[in-house]
Amino acid sequence: MNTISNTHIVVIGNGMVGYKFCEKLLAKKKIGQQITLTVFGEEPRVAYDRVHLSEYFAGKTADDLTLASADWYADNGIRLFLSDPVVDIDREEKLVRSHHGHIVYYDYLIMATGSGAFVPSIPGVEKDGVFVYRTIEDLELIQSYARKARKGAVLGGGLLGLEAAKALLDLGLQEAHVVEFASRLMPRQIDDAGSRILQNQLESLGLQIHLAKSTQEIIGGDCIEGMQFNDNSILDVDMLVISAGIRPRDELAKIAGLETHPRGGIVVNNQLQTSDPSIFAIGECALAHHMIYGLIAPGYEMADVVATLLLGGEKEFLPYDMSTKLKLIGTDVASFGDPFIEEPACKTIRYENKAKGVYKRINVSPDGKTLLGGILVGDAEQYNMLLQTCKSRTILPPDSEDLILGSRGGEEAGAGVMSFPDDALICSCEAVTKGMICHEVSEKGNHTMDALKKSCKAGTGCGGCVPMVKDIISGVMKQNGIYVRNVVCEHFDYSRQELLDLVKMNGAKTYGAVLDEFGKGDGCEVCKPLVASLLASLWNENILQKDRAPIQDSNDRYLANIQKGGTYSVVPRIPGGEITPEKLIIIGQVAQQYGLYTKITGGQRIDLFGAHLNDLPDIWEQLINAGFESGHAYGKSLRTVKSCVGSTWCRFGVQDSVTFAIEVEDRYKGLRSPHKLKSAVSGCVRECAEAQSKDFGIIATEKGWNLYVCGNGGSKPQHAQLLATDVDKETCLKLIDRFLMFYIKTADPLTRTATWLNKMEGGMSYLKAVVVDDVLGIAAELEYDMQKLIDVYQCEWKEVVQNPELRKRFSHFVNAPVKDPSIAFETMRDQKRAKEWA
Amino acid sequence: METKTQNAVTWHIACHINDIPEDGGGCALIDGKQIAIFNFARRGEWYATDNQCPHRQQMAVSRGMIGSHEGEPKVACPFHKKTFSLQSGQCLNDDSYKINTFPVMVKENLVYIGI
């Protein structure tokens, strides 16, 4: 192809694929290749992430969804015309003319016009209150109409339709209905059984689902008032979103005389050339291999093919795998290979758990050797592994049901990522194979995820492949005999665990001693708090004494959390959330005296915000005199043990959860660990304390207590798993001692218990073996170490309050006894908050 | 000791050396300005910078943790962990930020800052 002189390329369409084409073209362009690139877009904004459109209703702004700013186009010399669709193509003269009258010459023309929503010709679709769900503008219209609507419906139970229905709920409609013509949801991705599970999940969110319904008419006057079906039933709704599929935007191609398919789509060959060799079509407007590829990954691949070709390379667009995995309204839905193939052409294995909302199906070849396809609903963790096993035709283990059930015999199921062939596609967004990653790791020494992201872009797209890439990294390193370890930072050539052992065996008690003995340089903000945490976990001496104050993370250093304006928050410990009226009054008085903002926390304590550094010792002195202790809200340490009222007051409670929560909190208060720790005790299975979302949670049973561990709230929620059943209090505490100490000793820095468990070889069964069955014979030592820490516990704030030397450190200026004059406050809902800087 | 040659700085007494913790920092009010002072005891060096972090305009740099990156002394703002070179004031993890640095002189156990 012509790459010698300046090549003029015009892209029609500024959607995701059109943008990706520009990005790929720039990335692949070699020095000396001259290209003039012009882009026309119909929408008023630059390309945005349409895949995550629904997140617009969950609080994302149009800016958050933008793929590249207008500046990006300008900086790269791309002429971008927005709100300016191309209206005419002159193929003789090779010119395009836009709505605003711009006439641009092209050597190559790229049609990336995408698709529009398909609107079936139902009588009444023109009424007010009927919408499509395709662009940000559509969403804005829906949003404003929803303010006055009460009941909404979505026509179409496919992926987009279900997201639209959830959006209606999010917009505050009282009812949200889904109307689907087929007899199941997502008919193109999942089977009847999977659809039923998905339906249960969606109904529990409040969606109402109507299957096998054919809409005859949209009724009402100017505005929609309902939908009438061909079984004569009527659904009373005042708004409707149509999401009944997509229609390729091929109008312009038709006008230009390019070959299109009667059912829509610009016909292209394997090079994505249309019937005019200098015009290409990519994305959802193109009909390749007789089909429209309605997913983003094949669209990106098409962009890559054309960018490669135009720069003189060779590439073809091959039939693309349409396997998908998505998180639909919080539920995983995935399908891969041939999900619908039936016996006897295959052997189908199904697993269904209605209570947990999980459905899994795999189709194995009749000889049981290869995986042909499958469906996962509710839990798609095995998706990547199954997809690769399917694509690479890996020979299956004899018990192929292990692929979805996990092995019941101890060993992990499946042959693992290292058994994949080199051409297995690991990162499908950036087309990175296993072989490429192995090469990067062993030949080029790229041993970290960050290094790989830079060197071959693996994991930079959707990020779904990151866990597999990490597995390959450590797999290759193990194969090459490299000991896989995470060193702390440039100052310590050890992992956290190694350093802990060294510090313990050498009895080092100050940072200086640790650095002199095992490190180099001056330390930094990574290793200092890490060593501080180690020292606290090992010896539990006051964290502000000796040379330990300046190595504490800022919050620990001042025993308070730094907040806006450089002010601090004060959180006294309220074990189990139980507090006397007298103590409540004291907190109120202190807050009033120092002008603090007060708020009840999610962990059943009281936050006092906006304290000046200089005031902290006085505030705490009053609190301590009233019998309070530090709540350690600032530390990577035990925070709260939440409780319900249990049998004390609750008519359902079977055990005294408050008393136990207080005991647990008192036992572990002040305990320093790799990350903050939370706990809860519930008095019965109703679980009002939400113990299963905690690092360790205890739930009362008729016979005693169930202990759950390694749960996580936060940004990556994970339920805790059952460690022991029906144990008495004493056993329960013993197991927690062992569990926590084992975590403290082996977890990487800033790793939560859930992540720690996820990475643990052997997972929960190994953890159980160590903690409950004591297979390593370390239980006694773990209990002993914990008891030692508990015995030396002292309230840090009490020590500071009583020690004039330490008190002196709580002063904003070292040379003036005044508070920071730059802090300003403003009023909000009768309280005050730190003012934002202009 | 700060090596930058400054023309016509005025030396201000900031504090006694014991007012700044070893291998830590403190803030002094000098001429109405908030100056962060750092005592690199392990190296026997002193540094001074603005106390305000330009990232979110918080007066908290002096409360940051000090350390080194490939030998270059630095401080990490406690607010969002932007780290700044104590020699150049340049932010080491975001080119768009920089803080001012000031020469420090220690004489008869007193810390002087040149502004």
Largest interface, Cβ cutoff 8 Å: A-B, 36 and 41 residues
Mean pLDDT of chain B: 88
Q: Assign an overall shape of chain A.
A: globular
- Give the biggest sheet of chain B: 4 strands, antiparallel
Tally of helical segments of chain B: 0
Provide a count of the helices of chain A.
26
Q: Indicate the structural class of chain B.
A: mainly beta
Strand content of chain B: over 45%
Distance between the ends of chain B: 15 Å
| Count of β-strands of chain A | 38
Radius of gyration of chain A, taken over Cα atoms and rounded to an integer in Å? 31 Å
- Helicity of chain A, as a percent range: 25-40%
Give the averaged pLDDT of chain A, no decimals: 89
Strand order of the largest sheet of chain B: 2-3-4-10
- Biggest β-sheet description of chain A: 5 strands, parallel
Oligomeric description of these chains:
heterodimer
The share of residues in extended strands of chain A comes to 15-25%
Major β-sheet strand ordering of chain A:
3-2-1-7-19
Q: Please report the total strand number of chain B as a whole number.
A: 12
Instruction: Identify the overall geometry of chain B.
Output: globular
Low-confidence stretches of chain B: none
In short:
With 838 residues, chain A is an alpha/beta fold. In chain A, 30% of the residues lie in helices and 20% in strands.
Give a verbal description of the structure.
The complex is a heterodimer of chains A (838) and B (115). By secondary structure, chain A is of the alpha/beta class. Chain A contains 26 helices and 38 strands. The radius of gyration of chain A is 31 Å and the shape is globular. Mean pLDDT of chain A is 89; it is low at 407-415. Chain B is mainly beta. Chain B contains no helices and twelve strands. In chain B, the strands form four sheets. In chain B, strands 2-3-4-10 form a four-stranded antiparallel sheet, with no helix packed on it. Chain B is globular, with a radius of gyration of 13 Å. Chain A: Its cofactor is FAD; [2Fe-2S] cluster; siroheme; [4Fe-4S] cluster. Chain A: Residues 635-760 form the Nitrite/sulphite reductase 4Fe-4S domain.
